[in-house]
Amino acid sequence: MKPHEHMATFGTLDGELRVGGMPLSRLAARVGSTPFFAYDRDILDDRVARLRGALPPRVELSYAMKANPMPAVVQHLATRVDRIDVASAGEMQVALDSTIHADRVSFAGPGKSPAEIRQAVAAGIIVEVESTTEIERVIKAAEELGLTPRIAIRVNPDFAVKGSGMRMGGGPQQFGIDAELVPAVLRRYSTAGLDIIGFHIFAGSQNLNAAIIAEAQRSTVDLVSQLAEHLAAPVRYLNLGGGFGIPYTAKDQPLDLDAVAAGLHALVDGPITERMPEATPVIELGRYLVGECGVYVTRVLDRKVSRGKTYLVVDGGMHHQLATTGNFGQAIRRNYPVIVGNRTDTPADENATVVGCLCTPLDLLADDIELPLAGIDDLIVIFQQGAYGLTASPTAFLGHPAPAEVLV
């Protein structure tokens, strides 16, 4: 998708981008300083509604908070999704401080500490265990607290998902218990006082290919059907993962959600209902829910020409925007969609490179892109910033102030 398509999503007024219906200059004045992240709640609501309209009614929607743990965003989504997935004690507390009930929260991720597991068990959260060590820690915490914990086995599948930005299943992984070991694990802990409610398989993230996602979901259902035969009770929780991608570059095409949904309808109406009638299928999404609702706004501090190349030096940078610089898992760095947010009605008439204020050549936000002529105090806007922005970046590097975040 190209920048003008993203501008159309947010809207413009008198040559300025609008976020949450507010012109960018007014929003910047309201925030008080740049740089800042702004998230548009209407775009967020539209995405949830689109998912609700496409996915089978039986499928529950879980928000993977790691994508954006801003409390206001989490609180907003807590009233609109069915579940929240967390990956640390800090995220767990944000979820528990929202309106969602603890039994609708799941806790995934390798390396859960004994203290984190105890906190989750005490709260009644589903612990998605990634190893037998974690299972033992759950048992110990449950014995000390006098509770019966609910757990799901996170499975490292025996298949890989092609086309994912990050592969998180298949082959050796720090994530989950290898599929071939799960039957023995279920037998070993069948009388350990655990309520094993089901399985979680998340094989990859940031995938824009609907056919690949659908095939991964079919493979997941087939694998869980086989593993369910070794479970003492019926499967009640079937977390199919997510991995739905969003377009970051001009060459990217949006995910065909309807095609993914058609595959899910076939799975729910077919093998899931036939083989696991008591299971609640869950789709766990982070980036796909929040990624397109956010922008990062940074102000031009300097404009300089070095041996024929124009640089716009801004007051933000890699310390807030690691992914934009290409250092968050990308094999090849490509420009995110970028505009001059207070000149949306001005044609692009130069090529410029946008760099941050850090003392490293890695601080590259956009390389040789077409922009309207921009000068000092103009506002540079980077789209697709609702997920893996601030909290996925090296915020302490060089000691610059943290940016503001607003939900509008």
TrEMBL record:
Query: Mind telling me which InterPro entries this protein's record contains?
Result: Ala_racemase/Decarboxylase_C (IPR009006), DCO2ase_PEP1 (IPR017530), De-COase2_CS (IPR022657), De-COase2_N (IPR022644), Orn/DAP/Arg_de-COase (IPR000183), PLP-binding_barrel (IPR029066)
- Biological-process GO terms, alphabetical: lysine biosynthetic process via diaminopimelate
Active site: which residues? Answer: C359
All copies of the Orn/DAP/Arg decarboxylase 2 N-terminal domain together span 46-290
N6-(pyridoxal phosphate)lysine occurs at K66
What top-level branch of life does the organism fall under?
Bacteria
State whether keyword Cytoplasm applies. no
Decide whether keyword Protease is in the record. no
Which molecular function GO terms apply here? diaminopimelate decarboxylase activity
- Cofactor(s) named in the record: pyridoxal 5'-phosphate
Which keywords accompany this UniProt record?
Pyridoxal phosphate
UniProt-listed NCBIfam families? dCO2ase_PEP1
Q: What is this protein called?
A: Diaminopimelate decarboxylase
- This chain's source organism reads Salinibacterium xinjiangense
